Amino acid sequence: MITLDQELARRARELAAHVGRPVVQLARSHTTTSVERALLRLAGLSGADADGVPWANHLVGQVVDQVGLEHGVALPVWDALCRHEAGDLHELAAKSAIGSVRFRLPDADAVAPVRRAAREAVTRGIARIDARRRERERMVAGIGDAPRKPWIYLIVATGDIHEDIPQAQAAARAGADVIAVIRSTGQSLLDYVPEGATREGFAGTYATQENFRLMRAALDETSRELGRYVRLTNYASGLCMPEIAVLAGLERLDMMLNDSMYGILFRDINPLRTFVDQRFSRQVHARAGIIINTGEDNYLTTSDAVAEAHTVTTSQLLNEYFAKEAGLADWQLGLGHAFEIDPAIPDSFRLELAHALLARTLFPDAPLKWMPPTRHMTGDVFHGYLLDGFFNLAGVLTGQSILLVGMMTEAVVTPWLSDRDLALRNVRYVLDATGSLGEDFRPVPGGFIASRAHRVLEEAVHLLERIDGNAAGLLGAIGDGTFGQMRRPPSGGRGGDGVAPRSELHYNPAEELLEPSRPAAHGHEEER
Amino acid sequence: MITLDQELARRARELAAHVGRPVVQLARSHTTTSVERALLRLAGLSGADADGVPWANHLVGQVVDQVGLEHGVALPVWDALCRHEAGDLHELAAKSAIGSVRFRLPDADAVAPVRRAAREAVTRGIARIDARRRERERMVAGIGDAPRKPWIYLIVATGDIHEDIPQAQAAARAGADVIAVIRSTGQSLLDYVPEGATREGFAGTYATQENFRLMRAALDETSRELGRYVRLTNYASGLCMPEIAVLAGLERLDMMLNDSMYGILFRDINPLRTFVDQRFSRQVHARAGIIINTGEDNYLTTSDAVAEAHTVTTSQLLNEYFAKEAGLADWQLGLGHAFEIDPAIPDSFRLELAHALLARTLFPDAPLKWMPPTRHMTGDVFHGYLLDGFFNLAGVLTGQSILLVGMMTEAVVTPWLSDRDLALRNVRYVLDATGSLGEDFRPVPGGFIASRAHRVLEEAVHLLERIDGNAAGLLGAIGDGTFGQMRRPPSGGRGGDGVAPRSELHYNPAEELLEPSRPAAHGHEEER
Amino acid sequence: MTLIRPYGDTTGDGMVQLSFTLPLPHDRVAEGAALQLARRMGMEPAMLAHARPVGPAHTFCVVYGSVTHLVDTESVTVVARDHPLLAPAEVNAEIKRLLRRRLVVVGACIGTDAHTVGIDAILNIKGCAGEKGLEYYREIKVVNLGAQVAVDQLVDRARAEEADAVLVSQVVTQRDAHLINTRALAAAFEAAYPPGRRPALVVGGPRFDEAMAAELGVDRIFARGTTPGDVASYLVHRIATARGDIRASA
Amino acid sequence: MTLIRPYGDTTGDGMVQLSFTLPLPHDRVAEGAALQLARRMGMEPAMLAHARPVGPAHTFCVVYGSVTHLVDTESVTVVARDHPLLAPAEVNAEIKRLLRRRLVVVGACIGTDAHTVGIDAILNIKGCAGEKGLEYYREIKVVNLGAQVAVDQLVDRARAEEADAVLVSQVVTQRDAHLINTRALAAAFEAAYPPGRRPALVVGGPRFDEAMAAELGVDRIFARGTTPGDVASYLVHRIATARGDIRASA
Ligand code: B12
Ligand code: B12
Ligand SMILES: Cc1ncc(COP(=O)(O)O)c(C=O)c1O
Ligand SMILES: Cc1ncc(COP(=O)(O)O)c(C=O)c1O
Prior knowledge:
By secondary structure, chain A is an alpha/beta fold. Chain A contains 19 helices and eleven strands. By secondary structure, chain C is an alpha/beta fold.
């Protein structure tokens, strides 16, 4: 509905690639404890000891202690298996937990069969993920898909999977197309994935394989009941991001929050750790046919939505680059943005429209994730309900793809059952009453909306130029507080000790298997 | 923003005049007890006896009993005064109340001085109204006017003038440009105007001269405090409509609900009585510089807002004709319409826009009164608040002039203090956030909105043709339930006994003085 | 006994939302007073989610919190239908059997209430919620007096028509107008008829509490969402019980 | 004693609005239960304005009505400021006079709470509501540990810095996370310092009840709308009273 300066857009993408490429290089030349644990999970290792410490943690911990992280765990682990230290991964992990396995790097001549064994195990895991992806495709085709765009995305957050399930089913029946189960506040700082069904979370429910399974099964049932496939989302973030990505693939989650910078900025996770973990997670998501949702909307909760609008665009361009590089297709790119302008600002709604249209026009094929107001929501729940209505309207007018439904109680509590129901009524009213109003919405070329959109894109290009000119590149910019005004120096944050530069010998069969065939990506010649 | 078929519009006006003219003829050839009482009030008669029966009622009652209604009261009353039956109108009324005055028609040769005396008395009354009009003009110029269109119109309805006043002042401070004091449910059926300040009303406060005075004085004070003139509205309807119109002129009310058919349809008042009373009331309003608000919005509470949209347009055309005929200028024509489409209907918002644009385009110079949803409001106050927000948006997008602020508690209670405050926050958000969105709102020529508007106008023309073809004309159509599906036969309803055909001798100096100089009205050549 | 609590986002959390305005300027005292009120209402803990001035002398407050009261669903008195819901044909047949003549119903909005949409929805052929109104029933004679009917007039007409039932609508509730008018209605009918002989008095309107019939001196109250079928079925049941007939009242 | 009631549209009408969900299917029992709950909360009469099913097992209700409780504004306990509100220069001067060194403040969001915007608004130079944060005060040394700080870490750092005051933010309240964490904080500081020697413990967050400080074992709680000046003035007052100095605590 607006026309962007194509040359400016091209330049923006070129710069994003330039800024992103060294970061990908870092990711390719390092590994992390969580990537290695994810590999083991892909190879079929699950479960935990009686204290809840996952076998993957035990096994990686032992390998790191004995051999170091830099070579990856695949060679030491399958070497041990080839040496019949244990019959399978579980047994090996259990034995290693009591210190009764000695790990080593295989001798040069043993490497080939060890690699082959590892690769076979992981191939089976990937086959399971492929099967899940085909299962999803079959179900969507057989049961039916969401009836329209935007998809209606609702959050469930009781902290108890057994309360979440009926609430999620209720939300689906009431019209939700996507259910997101929010995680307990502390989970992303845990360096392990909890096990089993959980009932104790604060402001969210733990992401565990069993919780994934239970919720997906419940939603499958509801999908059949409703005649439309209801999607399930969780969060691939925090110190266990790659493992969560694998579990999501194994349990047929359909969408994952997966952002290149969220954990750095908002959970104070070490930048290098994050970028390494990210790339692997994205590769898994690409393979699993999972849509990723990125988190630039969050920047507007800590910095001003007008002054810093261009940081959102910049981040979207970077997320796009990283995603494509890891093999994700356009239809998997749920880039985030948000309706967070102070409603007291004159013409705030038109500014929102401008920002929303910029994203829509710059990423025409991406399933954009449109986030509701949070920062300027107050305890005045009536006014909040109204603001959410205008957020919905902006979403409709600008053709957003995934509508994260706003809650009138945003400033008060995690959503109640009735909040969700009210919020859905709000969405339904706006979609039904104004659904085709776009026909009459024609931003004047060169008018307020179009020139605002142009200006934000210009500012994003300037910012990318500045980052590109910075010796420390993107990491330096993050350290300077460029995004969300959160300063996160490259060496700071949690989990930095779980990263190692790869040795020459490093081997990760999953990465090899997941490396995309690198199709020519949407307009970037640098991508090959 | 849409282009109407000019020929169709011309035809609609021509038909409205054709349908309205016989009704005006009826009004000119009849009088009513309330018109006569209004005349006495204009001539300075106010107050009531100890039981609260107004002197105007006593005096008209006595004249009617003794001389009949058909000649009007002016001749018998000023004949009695010329005969020195009493020193002034009050004394005459008091004496007549105890049966000690004999009324008669003056002898043929006494008629001229009696007429002169009556005319002089009424001229003084009209001069008071003129002075009030000039006073308003001075105040608006001196203090300042409402800062923008639409004017924000708020209702106060506690039933107690002493609660109403602080609430009205609070509303004005919070942003209201117009305050309407709703009347007690029963007032329009009373055949007298209550006296004094009142504290007992159900769902509204009695309209009395003293209440008018108190509220106007309070709002004058607030106007000065705020630096903008706050307008006051009441209702010229019911059996005392013309008297209320006079009191409004005397107490400098700024706007009055004054509709040609509301009383017939919704209070079951006799049609002839209504049309006769109406014409006089409109003449008073024309002179007093009062804006009238018509009530076609009400039809949509009893009949369907889509199916019967054209009845609103038809009624607006009739109200326009009647108003112009009585001397009201375009800027005084607050024609009513409403946002009453079932929100569950697909595209309901676009249909609302179409209807609102039709009115806006058909009456480009009239200060249209845009009424909020009422019928489809429910006890779900959250949803009601949202709907009101979209009503406000429709008002902004289509350039409405007087925005009657909707209350989230519409289906529950008469508005609370906090409802009004919340409602104003809603209006402010919409005006500030989307105020200039009209720039981007361009209904496609021939598209959904434009063709819907055209179709409604066509249906209105068809309806007018049918009424015009009906032997009983407009009265017949009203009897058939054309408007609001309320069937009101010409002979039914209350107050019919207070109407009489005028005799040859009938004299009403006010009517003579108020008869407009008949300027060529906006596009009707029939108007002379 | 089944005890329940409101449900916010977990079973038993008791969460509710409350809003009100206090006649106090907005300051800490007003905020404290808001919490005090919430606590007196049984909210513990109560969170003041929002407070803002409405003019210089009032404060609007939004409170969230957990209410300590339990609701015992078994002690809830509902005016539940204790008779079958009949189709129009069944209603007609029962009236014929029981009365051997048409049932006469006189309807009105009394007092100064002009809201006829509700009573019309029950009486007019058009009906509501997909059901035809009582006029559609062959064995019911409907006399709809419309709006703003004085109680005396209504009594006179009911006598003249030998009404079996009088149906009255009351929509305006400010200052308890509906309750006052209903009491006046009951008193006038009691006074005008010999004891026990007055027609059935049925009152309706969106804001009535259906449990108040006895208190207000009428036979039955119908609130939000009533359909003509509800009323017709009740009327049949009423005649049947009045005549000691068990078939229809089962 | 000043007794007040909520104000709907007339003085003393006591009107309030209430909404909640009951874990019952939507039927007459649920509606009756809603009214029963409203009555238990002191609403009389209570009008059920709205009820609708939320799925097969829950009913959302909106109730309007008059609450019979009175609020006694004189018995409202407010955590009112009983000390002067000082400008930054005055704060600096007082600290200098009282301590003869800079006041040391250590701040953090504890537990797993990552909401730093609130504490940053108090501590960072940028501040909020037009006031500069504590970092701006020459005589205050601010150590802001950021988010997700374990209580033990915080204790260690407070000791290392010889903190005069520890400022902690808690925004997440689900399952009383903020209360649990605050209690843990108080216990850890009591354990780590000799009796009466621990730094001032100041806690803040939008959903706290400021009256709960004693109950939670901290010195002061600041809720919605706090500004850096409020906190600085309190800290000065606190040192002054601790030292028995009257000037600043008057
Ligand atoms: C339509 C309407 C009007 C129309 C009425 C047209 C007409 N011929 O009826 C007009 C525009 C004339 C009007 C005027 C006024 N109205 Co009005 N109106 C409404 C409105 C928007 C809808 C009511 C309605 O039609 N509901 C639909 C019907 C089908 O529902 P119902 O009445 O509840 O009926 C159902 C049941 O209750 C039951 N039922 C009802 N009666 C009976 C009777 C029997 C015997 C039985 C068995 C069942 C039964 O069965 C029905 C079907 O299910 C409401 C707001 C709202 N959304 O509710 C305000 C509302 C009712 N009006 C109100 C007011 C104050 C007025 C005025 C007094 C304002 C004024 N001062 O000028 C005027 C004057 C009217 C008067 N003297 O009574 C207030 C009442 C406030 C209160 N609680 O006291 C309301 C709630 C709006 C508000 N918040 O201020 N109004
Ligand atoms: C911004 C925000 C975020 C940002 C935080 C960024 C950051 N670096 O702080 C991000 C996007 C990261 C985020 C994430 C989450 N959030 Co959040 N977030 C918000 C939001 C939108 C605004 C909070 C805010 O910044 N307020 C502005 C500040 C200035 O206000 P304040 O904190 O009240 O501070 C003032 C006073 O309270 C006081 N004060 C506060 N602290 C202190 C301390 C001291 C010592 C003193 C003296 C005073 C003081 O002074 C301040 C200035 O006046 C709120 C919703 C809302 N509108 O309130 C949700 C909200 C707080 N978040 C919530 C949740 C659940 C989360 C998540 C847990 C969701 C999830 N499961 O993923 C995550 C994880 C975060 C975590 N582990 O804690 C919930 C909490 C629900 C509850 N009541 O328990 C809220 C209410 C949203 C909701 N309804 O669900 N969030
Ligand atoms: C992109 C993204 N990732 C992750 C999260 C939350 O997950 P965590 O549990 O890591 O805080 C969010 C929260 O909004 C998010 O936006
Ligand atoms: C045009 C018009 N006149 C009058 C009234 C109400 O006045 P009353 O019923 O007191 O005559 C209304 C109410 O909405 C109205 O719209």
